[in-house]
Structures are given as structure tokens and as C-alpha cells.
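Lecture 7 notes: from sequence to structure.
We start with the chain below.
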Amino acid sequence: MGTVSIRRRQTPRGYNQICLEPKLIPLTRVLIKKLYKAGTKTITREFLNLLTPQGIAIWFMDDGSKSYKKREGKVCSMTLNLNTYISKEENETIVAYFQQVWGFKWGLSKDKTNYRLRMGTKEGKRFISFISPYIHESMLYKVQTSLNVMATT
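Predicted C-alpha cells for the same chain:
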């Protein structure tokens, strides 16, 4: 296996971040070649068709998040997000891929500048069950839900 450099940085919002830069690992070189056309990340259906459940879990560990909505102090719903940092059209390709290949219904949402995939409570629980076997123990917080406080719809 090749060399992995580790770089620490702080995000614009003040969070500490550790960046692993495994550019010398052969798989990383292949992924970079497939994903970065002319220096810009580009997601195609051809690339998505290469994904396995483990690959989807790795993607979620990297770019996924979970949040809860509360009503009267109690959790009433959960939202999963998959931050993609790509165009609306590419996100629509991802939404279609997940629906057609895996049967998951993602929606699109947009923050100030970027689109991302978004999933509600019921579908989110199903997705979490799908990827959970592949989640590293250090990332379990991204998929753990407390069923006694979660909405079931």
C-alpha cells in the first residue's frame, strides 16, 4: 500500500478536520481519474453503476449527515443528507440511480449555494439498515438512531 499523508485544518465554520491524502494508493488514483474530469468532480451513471453497498456506506461516512427535528422537546423526525458538491443535474442522476438500482427515494434540497440529497425518517431508517453493516465503529454516530424517541412515519 502507498503512503498516506495526514493534514489537519480548520473549516470556515471553525470545525477541526483531518484530511487523509492517499494519492499514492492505486485505488485512489483510479477513483480520481474516474471522478475528476478536467479537474472538476463529475458524477456519471457509469461511475454510480460501480458502487456496491460498501461503497455507498463509505460515501455516506464521508459526505453524509443526520439531523433531528423536535416538537415540544421530543424528537419527531429525522433527516439524512448526502452532500455531493455537484450540479443539480448530477444530483438528479444520483437520485434516479438510487431509485432504480437500490429502491431508495432521495429528494433534492439546496442550501445557499449547493444541492444535496435529502431523505426523511421512514426511508432514512431503511437506508441506515442497508449501510450499517459497513460503517466503521468511529462513524457509528452517523447511523445510530434511538428508536424509542424516533417518529415511525
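Points to note: The two ends are 45 Å apart (CA to CA). Residues 88-102 form the longest helix (15 residues).
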